[in-house]
Amino acid sequence: MDRVMKLASQKAVVIFSLSSCCMCHTVKRLFCELGVNPAIHELDEEPRGREMEKALARLLGRSPSVPAVFVGGKLVGSTDKIMSLHLGGKLTPLLREAGALWL
Q1: Does the keyword Transport apply (predicted)?
Q2: CA torsion angle for 95, 97, 98, 101 (degrees, to 10)?
Q3: pLDDT, mean of residues 66-80
Q4: pTM for the whole structure
């Protein structure tokens, strides 16, 4: 859990992902299309990835635990929450507030 929280606070937007996950790809693509340069941690490529995946599942209260998106060091959620914020026009202001977007 400590490692997850430490990594989550190192950049304005942090995404924990699996390289083979299509929903993770969708979320990563959305942030890139918005002009955000997130830190991306592919858990299947991390030495302690399984441990981090379990910690994320506890934080999210569900499994699968990816994608897990942190903005400004705070857990925002997974695909459903990110898409809901985006479609509701609330994602961009959140990203600006965190310093992930300039405009």
Answers
A1: yes
A2: 50
A3: 96
A4: 0.94
- Average pLDDT over every residue of 54-74: 93
Question: Could you tell me the CA-to-CA distances from 69 to 4, 39, 56, 64, 75 in Å, in that order?
Answer: 11, 10, 10, 13, 6
E strands present in the chain: 13-17, 39-42, 68-71, 74-77
d(CA 35, CA 51) in angstroms, rounded, equals: 30
52 vs 46: CA distance, rounded Å: 9
In angstroms, what CA-CA distances link 96 with 15, 71, 87, 90, 99? 17, 10, 16, 10, 5
Q: What is the Rg, in whole angstroms, of the alpha carbon atoms belonging to the chain? A: 13
* Axis crossing angle, helix 22-33 with helix 79-87, rounded to the nearest 10: 30
Instruction: Enter the tokens of residue 34.
Output: 């918005």
